[in-house]
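ping. complex inputs:
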Amino acid sequence: MEHALEVRAVSLRFGGVRALTDVSFSVKAGELFSIIGPNGAGKTSIVNCISGRYRPTEGQLFYHGRDITGMKPNARAQLGIGRTFQNLALFHHMSVLDNIMVGRHHLLKNNFLTGSLYWLTGARREELEHREKVEEIIDFLDLQSVRKATAGTLSYGLRKRVELARAMALEPKLILLDEPMAGMNFEEKEDMARYIVDLNEEYGMTVVMIEHDMGVVMDISHRVVVLDFGRKIADGDPADVLADPHVKRAYLGEEDELLVDPDDAPDHPSASEHAA
Amino acid sequence: MASSNLIPAGDFRSSYAADTTIFPTSTSRNFAILGVALVCFAPLVLTEYWLSILIQIGIFGIAALGLNILVGFTGQISIGHAAFFLLGAFTSAYLSNHLPIPVFFAIPLAGLVTAMVGLVFGLPAARLKGLYLVIATLAAQYILIDFFSRAEWFTGGSVPAMANPFSIFGYVLRGDRQYFYVVLAYVLVSYMLVTNLMRTRDGRALVAVRDHYLSAEIMGINLTKYRTLSFGLAAFFAGIAGALYAHYQLVVSNEGFGIERSILFLAMIIIGGTGSIMGTLMGTAFVVLLPEAMEWLSMELKGGVIDRALQLNTNLTFLREIAIGLIIIAFLVFEPDGLAHRWRQIKAYWKLYPFSH
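pong. complex structure:
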């Protein structure tokens, strides 16, 4: 299967702080891929590298075989990379509808000249066509009742959903979701998990997701990569990764008392047995 | 928008086209058309004096509209707007005097020339934000004004430049009564264009840059392009307004277009409501009418205690400046969303009357 995304030996440093060290993994096209790890592990940093917010200090990023390491974020949107943010990043004074319409930016052709002349240049027809696409997304995410509401006035869960809608409007092939379920109650999480599975299965998007809720991660992801202190400590099938002793120590908080450094004692089966 | 809550019961939209109209209801559209029709009769009933005030509101309203695109919608800042206004005025005067270009075409051409210069001065906006950008635009103000006083070939130097009266197909329009319609046409077209801009792709991109530039970039919006573009658009409308002013006054000089005029333009959009198209016109009307109101007030108070204490007649101009300053502060504190917001509140109140909710 083709790799939708390949992260090759990416390191990211801010002065003396090593946010990422030599991280490599790849995501196959059509996969639902999760990035997990404790706070400060570098999960958002790697997503920021993929979406273009940060430029890796070392290493390369390939999107469908194309080197995107130095590409500007807005150019990546045109290639079909969309994302949501961990901390809400909606356009607060715009309506929900306009927020989602901004996602269509690179698909729309009208500009400030043709847009100003609205009726004469076909801008009106184009806007209405895209409005129809946006309404499909609104239906999919059940946002009908708030489409005219100002985004800044919505509840947290709804804003997260509007952000997902906006990223979907880009019609991305690869969608990056940074903690889509943070701060949600159980029902909202269930809904969001359903939407994410649908994105992957119905819309055929490759999904890369950062999430802390291990239940959701284990249930819906095809593959998982685990980061800790900016390094990759494991990747593969969710069940295998969970069983990995390094992951247990780093993420699930077991074996803390043993103080075994995973780098000093690689592949030491007795350590994990002891903990179990 | 708050107004969307006020759609009458039973008014259902059955197509996306019906949901994207400029006016929320057919009543509001009819009122707007009626309003424009009434304004068309203004030259027949109003005195020259009041007409000149309406013309000023129109001209400055176009310039303020440009500034509102820049400040209100894109979230940039400029305190060099008056210089672009003046550039438009000098350019139009130059084009119609020294080149065989009729005034009819010189006005939009002046707008385009000013837009080009605006784009150049907008380039720093790609890198600068906030206070640093203020200083960069302050430089634009002084560079341009200095250029006008030195470039004698262009402006006439110390002698004010003459501008031809507006003519159309050889028919020369004279006096406020005729020129009023030229300004009215430009106001209607400008406000229509900007309304359309703000409901299409690039208008949304500008607002996205203002609200959250990081996620705007992730959405595929080129920040440099749109920040610079907003300066170009602002300068375009300033240039158009300046050109209209030149052919209204028939003479152009540096006088009265220093930094204080730039700040007055900012006052117009703050009072009217940043990021509100109709608010721009309300704010402009407010700022233009304020000196008139002050004048009237001082006449009323003539001979009274306050007059004797403040010597209103001799100090009127200073008091006017103070009043404008105080009113800007008052608006920032009590009505940061401007007159446009107040107007929506009033509409909502009457819609729901006698119930308050």
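The CA atoms of residues 228 and 346 of chain B lie 37 Å apart.
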